[in-house]
Write a structure and sequence with these properties.
Layout (H helix, E strand, L loop, with lengths): L13 E4 L15 H14 L3 E4 L3 E2 L11 E5 L6 H13 L3 E6 L9 H6 L13 E2 L19 E4 L4 E4 L14 H17 L3 E4 L17 E3 L2 E3 L9 H11 L7 E5 L5 H7 L9 E3 L22 H15 L4 E4 L9 H4 L8 H13 L4 E5 L20 H13 L5 H11 L2 H4 L30 H6 L4 H14 L2 H4 L1 E5 L6 E8 L2 E8 L5 E2 L9 E5 L8 E2 L4 E5 L1
Parallel strand pairs: 1-2, 1-15, 2-5, 5-9, 9-12, 12-13, 13-14, 14-15
Antiparallel strand pairs: 3-4, 6-8, 7-8, 10-11, 16-17, 17-18, 18-22, 19-21, 20-22
The structure holds 1-deoxynojirimycin (NOJ).
Length: 556
């Protein structure tokens, strides 16, 4: 097999910051850039290499910054461009890189482009967005928004509908228009010239729409319902190759595409080893809903290991040597990893969080840590719909509980406890002081009441904590090339409880086994295996078994 091309972002660990909930510096209850700057030494100490910043641009916050009204300015609540420059400079001085979120499938409806575009049918910017005449007095087709309801909004003034695959305040840009592409590429170049280190590209698999705009059988994906004609569309690779030629190839960047609806075959194109498009993509298959979930997302059922293993193995094996994997359990759109895939009961929280981290960080690809994951933050409890902030959850409640009466309120709230994006968006729990040290004011969103026990300060003081375990995993990746580059070999394909695999590089082998259950399970993988145990969440092992949530890694 050809030698894997060695690149810095393949050896890096990425840390995602959701700025609104990370650290407030001025007491207004909202996280901000100066708050991030003040926490950079914490991230340096943790050992991560790169920070992915969820959007910090000017935004009316219909979808917490994923609705941008000015790509070259900073959200008022987050600070100023001077604060951004200071953050970037401080990060670079510490040897940390900054990756920006690039949200260019859509803008805010308050972006000057859209304000101009909607002003008249003859506007010079009319074609910056996707406008269509009504069909039989109704929406042009049956595409649905990822945030519930039709993807089309009727505009009284001009008598046409515009497309919004997300909220109606997030109109989709028309990538068919070369002027739109020019604007986007200019803006990206502007940020690159500022010295940023890469882009995470929001729903980039959705930028090319089938221009026939046909009705579709709605398909189910983690982001909700959308017609089958909007992701991995006819020109998406052409657009990304153009972006690569005109912008990305001119700088040394980390690029990761959020690719809703991506298959392994599509991923081989997006993240091809020749580097003509992106560095890597996020797929959704391992976090995607359980069969039978309402609208493909809402459920209180836990993932089942055999299916999870099949998905993880497929991505590891299929991309080998052809494209690069990104590895994640959670992010700002997912519930907390330890609650979803592990066990957040006090007895198992620490053990299962360490097990999940081991499983992910030893796989092939670039691992992502979502803020608070590194010390085991958990899901929230939502007692009423008023406790929820997220537009996706609120719209789903309105549609499925209030209007269509498909489920009752308490059931939906139980689903939210398990799956809602709000679980990830509670403020970071820094210490056990008021508001978990996130703000001196009133936090914009509820602090998880478990912050007295689960917080960064306590974790840093405890050598057995989840935090110190993450620190060790990160350091191992930096010191052992087999972790980023070893070839993946799956093991124990029939186990109901254990996820296990080997990695191979230059005559070395890494053996990894993780028990996903709270039961002791027979396992002979380590019997007679010589080598050095490089990490485990148990100090003592028992012959022939893995203990509850035990994870072991041996290098031989
Ligand atoms: C994906 C982002 O991760 C999510 O938070 C957002 O709501 C949608 N894209 C729309 O931008």
């Amino acid at each position: 097999m050809a030698e894997e091309k060695r690149l810095w972002w393949k050896e890096a660990v990425i840390y995602q910051i959701y700025p609104r909930s990370f650290q407030d510096s001025n007491g207004d209850g909202i996280g901000d850039l100066a708050g991030i700057t003040s926490r950079l030494p914490y991230l340096k100490e943790l050992g991560v290499d790169v920070i992915w910043l969820s959007p910090v641009y000017k935004s009316p916050n219909d979808d917490n910054g994923y609705d941008i009204s000015d790509y070259r300015d900073i959200m008022t609540e987050f600070g100023t461009m001077a604060d951004f420059d200071k953050m970037l400079q401080t990060a670079h001085e510490l040897g940390l890189k900054i990756v920006m979120d690039l949200v260019v499938n859509h803008t805010s409806d308050e972006h000057p482009w859209f304000i101009e575009s909607r002003s008249s049918k003859d506007s010079p910017l009319r074609d910056f967005y996707i406008w269509k005449d009504p069909k039989n007095g109704k929406a042009p087709n049956n595409w649905e928004s990822c945030f519930s309801g039709s993807a089309w909004e009727f505009d009284e003034k001009t008598g046409q509908y515009y497309l919004h695959l997300f909220s109606k305040k997030q109109p989709d840009l028309n990538w068919e228009n070369p002027k739109v592409r020019d604007e986007v590429f200019d803006m990206m170049t502007w940020w690159c010239e500022k010295g940023i280190d890469g882009f995470r590209m929001d729903v980039i698999s959705m930028i090319s729409k089938d221009q026939r705009f046909p009705d579709g059988e709605p398909t189910v994906g983690d982001l909700g319902f959308y017609g089958p004609y909007v992701y991995n569309g006819p020109r998406v690779h052409e657009f990304l190759q153009e972006m690569n030629r005109r912008v990305l190839s001119k700088y040394d960047l980390l690029t990761v595409g959020e690719a809703a609806g991506v298959t392994v075959d599509e991923a081989k194109k997006y993240a091809n080893a020749e580097g003509t498009e992106l560095g890597m993509v996020f797929h959704f298959e391992h976090v995607e809903a359980i069969p039978g979930a309402l609208a493909g997302k809402w459920t209180d059922k836990k993932p089942h290991l055999p299916e999870l293993r099949a998905t993880l193995n497929k991505w590891q094996l299929e991309l080998e040597g052809k494209a690069w994997n990104s590895l994640y359990w959670d992010n700002h759109d997912q519930p907390r990893a330890v609650s979803r895939f592990g066990n957040d009961a006090p007895k198992w929280r620490v053990l299962s969080a360490k097990m999940l981290a081991t499983c992910l960080h030893m796989m092939k690809g670039t691992p992502y840590i979502y803020q608070g994951e590194e010390f085991g933050m958990t899901n929230m409890h939502f007692a009423t719909i008023e406790d929820c902030d997220d537009i996706q959850a609120r719209n789903a409640y309105q549609q499925y509980v209030v209007e269509e009466k498909l489920v009752d309120g308490p059931t939906m709230l139980r689903y939210f406890d398990e799956m809602s994006r709000d679980n990830a968006r509670t403020p970071v729990q820094w210490d056990d002081s008021a508001n978990a040290g996130f703000t001196t004011g009133k936090p914009w969103f509820t602090v998880n009441p478990n912050y007295k026990e689960i917080n960064a300060k306590a974790a840093m003081a405890d050598p057995e904590s989840v935090y110190h375990y993450y620190k060790k995993l990160i350091a191992l990746r930096h010191s052992l090339p087999i972790i980023p580059y070893g070839v993946f070999e799956p093991l124990l394909l029939d186990s109901e409880s254990i996820y296990a695999y080997k990695r191979h590089l230059d005559g070395q082998t890494l053996t990894v086994a993780c028990n996903f259950t709270d039961k002791e399970v027979a396992c002979d993988l380590f019997e007679g295996l010589s080598g050095e145990e490089i990490i485990s969440n148990y100090k003592e092992h028992k012959a022939g078994v893995l203990q509850p949530y035990e994870a072991r890694v041996v290098l031989s």
